[in-house]
Design brief:
By secondary structure, the chain is an alpha+beta fold. The protein has twelve helices and 16 strands. Helices cover 22% and strands 20% of the residues. The N terminus is likely disordered.
Length: 407
């Protein structure tokens, strides 16, 4: 299978919140070499945090400079993965993933049977789950049986035979967000620190369409790392009420496990249950107070942030408990047209070329076409115009819904 790599368009220094990447449906390093991802834009000069007083009252912050020029293309890739790897079966049909439940211990056969019997559940699939350190970056990793896990992933990911053969051969696939923002060396062998330390080659960047999952490895690799087998389970219940499903599963697995909602939850509430003007002002002031601090992938503040970390930290100042990652923050309230956006609403984009429907970036709308955002690696928290290209939607946060999604 031949893979083609398109060039990276411009990374906007300030006007765009993140590097907008056009690539093949899968960014895959095969054989002995690797795809080279190269940026032409220079690293912007670090700004000092703006003082709180007069600026925060009106958010009248400096305008954005002009965008950078286009990055040069580099389309090199090495030969296909070794033919000695056993082929991973192609899925006959894809499975709608509703919930990912993870814990620190192996789920018992009794627990798995109880989950399978919850009303509306059509299928389940166990995975190993745990937090490891990948090349110096904290990452939440799933260990999967490639052939059984493959149908649970997005269409473009599920279709790539070289990707699944890479995973089956023992290589690690990082999410597009982690690979790009943590600047992982695609195609290189990196140290992995877990219960048992080792080194693993990074074979690909690809989305698996699951909030909070930073990387996947084979179940054999997961065992080598010491991740507990069957410590997580995927649940497919496409017609079930997501909130009721999660509550039912929670009764089975207990309060120490985490449930990652993989699709939107429909919640009907009175308008009075949304945020107050005081809460919105508090959120905007908190976010604006962080202008100038650096973007760091996976950081949640107060001295560095990634995009969803800034949202979570700012909303916490107003007493609103937000989930950690942008994919789940997308589920925290009703969606409204951009033309109806109000200060305090959340703006979302999908820049991931491996899954065009995946939400992978978020910012806080500040009104008048402006937003506060932690853009991308090498940049810092900014107050900038809203770019409408690849805008995925606008969410008006409901604290009650946000608290449910956050479990």
């Amino acid at each position: 299978m031949q893979l083609h790599f398109a060039s990276f368009p411009a990374r906007l220094r300030t006007a765009a919140p993140v590097a907008m990447v056009a690539a093949t449906v899968m960014t895959l390093a095969t054989g002995a070499g690797a795809a080279t991802l190269r940026h032409g834009a220079t690293t912007p000069t670090q700004h000092k945090s703006l003082a709180a007083s007069k600026h925060l009252a009106t958010l009248a912050l400096p305008a954005a400079p002009a965008p950078a020029g286009a990055a040069p293309a580099d389309t090199s890739a090495s030969s296909a993965i070794s033919q000695s790897v056993t082929a991973v079966p192609r899925p006959k049909r894809l499975v709608d993933a509703t919930l990912l439940v993870t814990g620190t211990r192996t789920l018992t056969a009794k627990q798995l049977l109880a989950i399978r019997r919850v009303a509306g559940v059509r299928a389940i699939q166990t995975v190993a789950a745990g937090t490891v350190n990948v090349a110096g970056h904290r990452a939440f990793v799933l260990g999967v049986a490639p052939g059984r896990f493959r149908p649970w992933t997005p269409r473009l990911t599920a279709a790539s035979q070289p990707l699944w053969e890479s995973i089956s051969s023992g290589e690690l696939t990082a999410s597009f967000d982690m690979g790009h923002d943590a600047k992982l060396p695609l195609g290189a062998t990196v140290p992995i620190k877990a219960a048992y330390d080792t080194t693993i080659r990074i074979g690909a960047f690809a989305s698996v369409g699951m909030a909070g999952v930073d990387a996947i490895v084979s179940d054999v690799r997961a065992q080598e790392l010491g991740l507990p087998a069957a410590s997580g389970v995927l649940v497919s219940a496409p017609k079930a009420d997501a909130a009721q499903l999660r509550n039912a599963v929670r009764q089975v697995v207990g309060h120490r496990a985490r449930a990652w909602l993989l699709r939107q939850m429909i919640v009907i509430r009175d308008a009075g249950e949304f945020m107050t003007r005081l809460q919105i002002n508090t959120i905007l002031r908190a976010a604006a107070s962080r202008i100038g601090v650096p973007y760091v992938w996976g950081a949640t503040g107060p001295n560095s942030f990634d995009c969803s970390g800034l949202v979570q930290w700012s909303f916490a100042h107003a007493g609103v408990r937000m989930p950690r990652v942008s994919q789940q923050q997308f589920f925290t309230g009703p969606h409204v047209p951009y033309s109806a956006a109000r200060p305090g609403d959340l703006l979302f984009w999908h820049y991931d070329p491996t899954d065009p429907n995946n939400v992978d970036h978020v910012a806080i709308y500040a009104g008048n076409g402006m937003m506060i955002v932690a853009p991308h690696t090498g940049d810092f928290v900014k107050y900038v115009p809203v770019p409408l290209n690849k805008l995925a939607g606008v969410v008006r946060v409901d604290p009650g819904t946000a608290a449910q999604v956050g479990w």
